[in-house]
Amino acid sequence: MIKVSKLCLVVLLTVWITTGCWNLKEPDQLAFSLGAGLDLLEDGQLQLSSQIVIPSGMGGQEGSIGKKNKTFRVVSATGRNVYDAVPNIQLQLPRSLFIGQRRIILIGQRLAEHGIDDLFDEFIRNPQSEMRSRIYVVKDADAKDILAATPIFESYSSTELVDKQEAIGLKSYYFRNFLSDALRPSLQPILPALSLSASKQTVYSGSAIFNKNDGLKLIGFLNTQEAAYANWITGRQKRLVVTSFVKRGQGTVSLKLHTLDRRIRVKIVNHEIKIEVRLKGKGTLVENNSNLNPTKENDLRIIQVELSRITQKSVQQLIEKVQKQYKTDIFGFGESVHRHYPSQWKALKKNWYATFPGLDVKVKVELQCSDPGEANSSIKIIP
Amino acid sequence: MSLSGWQLIWIIITEVCAIIGIRISPAIAASNQDAWLSILIGGVFGTVLTLLVVHLSMLHPNQTLTQFSRGMLGNWLGRMITLPYLIAWCLFCAGLLREFSGFLQPILIDRTPLWIMMLLILSLMIFLTYSSGMKGIGRFCEIIGPLIIFVLIVSFILNVSNADWHNLLPVYVDSGWISIIKGSVGPAFWFPGPFTLLVLIAFMKNPQQAISKSMIGLGITVSMVLVATLMVLMVFGPNFASKIRFTYFMYVRTIDILNFIQNVDIFFMFIWLFGVTAQLSLYLFIASYEMAQWFNVKNWRRMIWFIAPVIFILAILIPNETAFTFYDSFWMNVIFPVCGIGIPFLLWIVSIAKRNESNKKIDNNCRKG
């Protein structure tokens, strides 16, 4: 008995001693990849670019004389699929590549136009993968260029791109959200787009529209204004500024909306689908160059009605444009029909692609100015 | 004996680790956004099966499965009937050991051979079981059970911001009853904690509490699995979730609060390891104890040295992950119908019949007297 308990103790000791030390890898043996960029080269090859952190460039005292060290480097290699390029990137690196911190996934425009439906398996399957990556499409440039662009505040452009979504008023849109949308049969995914300015700065430039029925190919872009409305309808917009010319006040008015609400109502009457999009927004009046005084109830109402009317028109135009030009249901109307009329949806599902362009969509926008700002009538210098 | 009511509850609850880890994805694959309905219905069926097993045990106070079936059906028939359970327990242990190591290895220590991981976990199991048996396992569960529940609730709260309840719509119509029931079969069988209660109840200090305590344990387990399924569905959406193998683990990986609380999966894995070790030890103990009863050996500890190597060899024999498809269908089609429903039901009928008979005899004796 005592013998056996001694044996047990020995077994337990070995457990303590041998738990996984040879698997240890110190951070200074790893090359952290913060962002991945995917491009299609001119000759049709897939190129993976990786933004690699250079930790020695990170620290350093502020105000130290001389040029600041580079904090990252972009390394690229080609491959037949995403992971096929990783060993080729490794060839250029003296430390082993670690992709568990890949915060950003960028897709170049040429690749997106070619179709990206078979590109995403690795990002989930690989046990090292990161579930909190965000994804962007790159407009008029290569993903590699965006990765290589000089960041403004932070040390890495990738971390800046993560924060950018929040800064421009979007809800966090993760790579996994995109996959969830893309795998849902009744929805066409859209992705935020980036482009490079003339001074080589990354600029948010709206949304990229994809067609799932055709290999998830990029079929067009929405500009930032249109993208904001589209994101409002799909519930991905957090904040928005609406500016328009108010006729009765002979001037422009800006309303900064901080609460956005949306409701999509579906009605099927005599086999005809009717969709009503209701958008509600509440916010603060931040600029008023009209003759109206927003502290007066009557004037305020005029401003609200006018802003709502103009926004409603723009949203209506956007929906018509998408219906006619792109013919893809990026607003999730199909998903709304699916949720409201699940049994009818089974029959509608197959032909939704053909139904969507002819869909009867009514838009109703209600903007509310909950705070007129810190002034009463406009501070306009009139001689 | 040695098991308090709370210990029984916590022992039942620790099985939540195995169920949440492995059983959510198949349910989602079967019934998409209605997987939570599958879990709920599975919970109801599981409760019925548990009641059957617990009641059967309570008819034979202080006797474990092998003891009372031998007592009731005679030495040889009793032994025959408990043999499938011994096989099932060893298989379960081997399967869980292999699957959990296979899950940990690529994520945590990808350059460590699988068998070393399994050997390490096995050593812990042997240590816990050998040193203190049922008492130790009960106390261990009493400590880690609350920890597991705490960690689960934290994981639910931290991911509320990522959840979108629209992902649960439309309810029912898309899948229909057939798919929902299909998805509920797995959870229904796993919830009673494959057959452990047939042995556990005999160790309770107050066996008359068995029904209430096991129902509390099962209730907490089912509700935890239910919330986990709902959260997974709301975070990933049904179409994406059904493609992920270990959905709950991926779910934990999505936690990201203010760029500050993130990469918490490592902590979860630690707690998970505790829970799975507790479960594995429990099965090792039960298999050894019942084996000892089977062979009429007084010292059940000696059986560990036979059962543990068997579990290890079985686990090593499982060649790869694809074998689990066969392993699962073997459980679903053979082990559960036989050991989970058939034999307990048979034993229960025989017990009831015998009890009525003896009651009559007593009555008759009284009358004669």
Automatic annotation (TrEMBL), chain A:
- Source superkingdom: Bacteria
Taking every annotated instance into account, which residue ranges of this chain make up the domain Spore germination GerAC-like C-terminal? 205-372
Spore germination protein N-terminal domain location: 25-195
Localization per Swiss-Prot or TrEMBL: Membrane
Q: Which UniProt keywords apply?
A: Germination, Lipoprotein, Membrane, Palmitate, Signal
Q: Which GO terms describe its cellular component?
A: membrane
> Mind telling me which Gene3D superfamilies this protein's record contains?
Nutrient germinant receptor protein C, domain 1, Nutrient germinant receptor protein C, domain 3
User: Which InterPro entries does the UniProt record give?
Assistant: GerAC_N, Spore_GerAC-like, Spore_GerAC-like_C, Spore_GerAC_C_sf
Which Gene Ontology terms describe the biological processes this protein takes part in? spore germination
Q: How does it sit in the membrane?
A: Lipid-anchor
One Pfam family of this chain: Spore_GerAC
Q: What is the similarity comment for this entry?
A: Belongs to the GerABKC lipoprotein family.
Which protein, by its recorded name, is this?
A: Spore germination protein KC
Q: What organism is listed for this UniProt entry?
A: Paenibacillus taihuensis
UniProtKB/TrEMBL annotation, chain B:
Please name the InterPro entries in this protein's record. Answer: Spore_GerAB (IPR004761)
> What are the recorded Gene Ontology BP terms?
spore germination
Q: Which PANTHER family match?
A: SPORE GERMINATION PROTEIN A2
NCBIfam families, alphabetized: 2A0309
What is this protein's record name? Spore germination protein KB
| Coiled-coil portions | none
- Keyword presence, Zinc: no
Q: Which residues cross the membrane?
A: 7-29, 35-56, 76-97, 112-131, 143-160, 180-203, 215-236, 266-287, 299-318, 330-353
**GO CC entries:** membrane
Query: Where is this protein primarily located?
Result: membrane
The record's subcellular location field reads: Membrane
Q: How does it sit in the membrane?
A: Multi-pass membrane protein
Q: Give the family from UniProt.
A: Belongs to the amino acid-polyamine-organocation (APC) superfamily. Spore germination protein (SGP) (TC 2.A.3.9) family.
Q: Does the keyword Transmembrane helix apply?
A: yes
Q: Which UniProt keywords apply?
A: Germination, Membrane, Transmembrane, Transmembrane helix, Transport
